[in-house]
Design brief:
The structure is a homodimer.
Chain A (H helix, E strand, L loop, with lengths): L3 H9 L3 H7 L1 E5 L1 H9 L4 E6 L13 E2 L2 H7 L8 E6 L11 E6 L4 H13 L4 E4 L9 H7 L7 E4 L2 H6 L5 E10 L9 E6 L7 H4 L4 E4 L13 H12 L2
Parallel strand pairs in A: 2-3, 5-6, 5-9, 6-7, 8-9, 8-10
Antiparallel strand pairs in A: 1-4, 2-4
Helix pairs in contact in A: 5-6, 5-9
Chain lengths: ~240, ~240
């Protein structure tokens, strides 16, 4: 049995405000929890309905009933495992290598996919505008598949961040120069914009280059999904 | 008011079995319906709660109440517009150019994103194994954003289809040759596999080449999402 106040606390972590207030976030799913346990992230508490084959690296697991779990889970069909972890402190070191900057990405599935892409392409630093969806949102975490443990997330005002950097700044635009015609440097900043509105004007002004992914044949579809576009541009960057 | 039997019919179209039985599928969302109306697809019936600014190309719209719409919509928050269209007949012509083959893609969001990518990259023909998620599934349609009207979908046994083609067959594998090291031809078949299991053994045997997207740095994450991988490979094909 889990005490009522604890259930209430965990349930409240579905909201960004409460996550920030308590400095905690929730991970669901056995495999992802096992991955987070192996990382540098600090555990607050672990719950499971049944934990015979749960590889918990020696930490204590609290038994929870299916009924209790369904009260606090963000999933329609909770899968028996829930971990609460401390939100890591944002690192403030100067960033080099390639950095991905997100200017207002709103869809949790897109952010989750983008984090997973950064993990694949070894782009460790992701800098998000305050308007970008919170990376500890349960739907983002579901889409990252544990990759969240291998990237550094930073939420900050982009204008100040970009102005302070000496790296070349590439923004993804519909009307940019084809990525096929450019030679990309070894280090830089890549900015991806909001799903509907793209990169905001004030951020666009700070871009040193405008990139585009060429469409084939006539113009038919409006735009590429931001996660698909990020996949292609990170692949080009790392080639 | 919409008659009860009609509401029942439309609701049943959320299931693949009923879609195939009636040869009908449902599109929700004003913008997507407007796009489908402009295409070659044949309308069965159109419903709207309020249609003052609904661009229906002159076809009749049936008024529906919010309550009726919520009974038949597949959306948590129905948005006021619902169209029922006839499922187009599968074309049986011989395919050339690049063809995308999907071997058991299961996630509706992934299939929707892949259809949108094919539209962007001008890959018109998508051939799916019978185990691939149905492209008229409401969640697929939501993710395609109207691109479904500009591609040809075919569901068929892949072994027979691939055996009858004379095009080179490229399969996406974790242990394939880096796509950066290959020169791809002007025409061919690209096969993407299931999210968890990849390309099935019997289909893998028919591949003439195995492709892979190189990971950067050490191996950390398990795999790229199938839609992200498709984005990168279609981009390479069309370069």
């Amino acid at each position: 049995m889990v005490v009522k106040s604890e259930l209430k606390l965990i349930k409240s972590l579905q909201q960004k405000k409460c996550r920030n207030e308590h400095g905690l976030f929730v991970v669901e799913g056995k495999k992802t929890i096992e991955e987070v346990l192996k990382s540098d992230m600090q555990l607050y508490k672990l719950f499971a309905v049944d934990f015979d084959d749960f590889n918990t690296e020696g930490v204590e697991v609290n038994r929870i009933s299916n009924k209790e779990l369904s009260q606090i889970s963000s999933l329609k069909n909770p899968n028996g495992y829930l971990g609460v972890f401390y939100i890591p402190k944002q690192e403030q070191k100067v960033l080099s290598d390639w950095i991905l900057v997100l200017d207002g990405v709103q869809d949790p599935g897109n952010l989750g996919t983008i984090i997973r892409l950064c993990d694949w392409f070894g782009v460790v630093d992701i800098v998000c505008s305050p308007q970008t969806v919170d990376c500890y949102n349960p739907k983002v975490l579901q889409a990252t598949m544990g990759s969240i443990t291998r990237v550094h997330m930073r939420y900050t005002e982009l204008k100040a961040f970009l102005s302070s950097s000496e790296l070349p700044i590439y923004g993804a635009f519909m009307d940019g120069v084809s990525v096929n015609d450019l030679k990309l440097p070894e280090k830089g900043i890549l900015i991806m914009g909001n799903e509907g509105k793209g990169i905001s004007d004030s951020v666009a002004q700070l871009c040193t280059d405008k990139l585009a992914i060429p469409q084939f044949g006539g113009i038919t579809t409006e735009s590429l999904n931001v996660a698909s576009a990020t996949a292609i541009l990170l692949h080009e960057i790392r080639k």
